[in-house]
Amino acid sequence: MAHSHSSRRRSNLRRQALVTAAACLAVLAVVCLACWALVRKPKQEDSTPVAGTDLSAAGDGSEGMAASDAAPEDSSGTELTEEEQRVADAMATAGTNCTKDAPQVTDPATWNDRGKALMEQLAADPFYQSEGLKYSAKEGCPYLIAVNRAASTVTVLALDEEGNYTRPYMAMVCSGGEDTPLGFFATPVNYDWRLLSGPSYGQYATRIWDAYLFHTVPYYSQHKDDIEYDQFNQLGTPASLGCIRLLVCDVKWIYDNCPIGTRVVIYDNAEDPGPMGKPGTIYTDPNDEAKRGWDPTDPDPANPWDASYRSGTAIRSQQAWDEWNAAQADGRWNGSITPTDLQGWSTDSATEGTRG
Question: Can you say how many angstroms the Cα of residue 348 is from the centroid of all Cα atoms in its chain?
């Protein structure tokens, strides 16, 4: 009897051991499956690009190198040519702050040739010959300013290797008008604020000739938070009484970098805005009473617009971007900011503006 009881006990122990082992194996299998799933899931997610992420810059492995070596594609998956990629890159840079009109950018590889062709064409025109147009170097003046009245675009030209103003440096969006004079001029004087017709007021004004100036979109009063915001939203179209209106950051750049005596040529070409193309524009909401009275690009620290708008919408060459960044870093840009003088509210546009 004792022997039979001992056998049954051993048999029960074996069964328990087998059940325990089976349970352990099942648990182990579940854990392994869970671990495999956790490891596999991130790899699947990482294969999907995240908006705004440059996959070619992620890590030092071969996957990152392959991404950077691959031919660029547009949003439809079509491979881009080198020219298309250059234009896409320039469009992206010039379009960062554009919330109304998108920029129209030409291939940067053609800018120099197009700048030279423009100046040669104008110099061969009998009208501009009678105006005495010259585009050779002028001492003390690093730039020539070409205004395309019909296309609402200003192109700044720097000196080329032959000492002529043919090299496109930057393009700015502007507004002129039917009374904007065509011709060849040299700037005689500038002003931090200037009384305009109406009266209205403009910041960073540089006189072109007679009563015609480069200046900002007009302000109802001499306060930085009282711009004629409906007129601001017309930038890039013929809208002025004859002056050339510009974004604050662009007209301030002329004020800072183009000495008195800088040459200006004003011409018409509705089909071709200029060697670099035409920059886009920024929209200001007439119902936003906190921000509508400001030019978004005004560098004044009191400006409620995001500081990212301070660079405006200009199409810039690499040299122009280098100069811009250096001026921000070394304090030159802030040195000429007009004193903060705020009205505290913006004039309602139901009040007729003066359209200087």
Answer: 29
